[in-house]
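Sample pair:
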Amino acid sequence: QVQLVESGGGLVQAGGSLRLSCAASGRTLSIYGSAWFRQAPGKEREFVTEIGRAAGNTYYADSVTGRFTISRDSAKNTVYLQMNNLKPEDTADYYCAAKTRLSDRYDTWGQGTQVTVSS
């Protein structure tokens, strides 16, 4: 039983930066990994980035490598997504997800936060 709540979305100009937060509550000790996904209008949900049990274990989609950074503050049970050099194609609803069963599947999801990048 884990609950995730995203925040930090909004409107930003191309080239700007934004930081998203994902606060976890409940059985947070059962979280083995966290990730960010996004879904643009009319498109399928796509993977953005993830962080494993060890903070150094991170992975990024090619489209965001070098621009986005995932991190976490374990004491606050919060995962962050720092987004720099934003592009209009980054516009989407961003979702935080967590693995709670040490599997390849993300089983817990937040409600999403909207990011709009103007050109």
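The CA atoms of residues 38 and 94 lie 4 Å apart.
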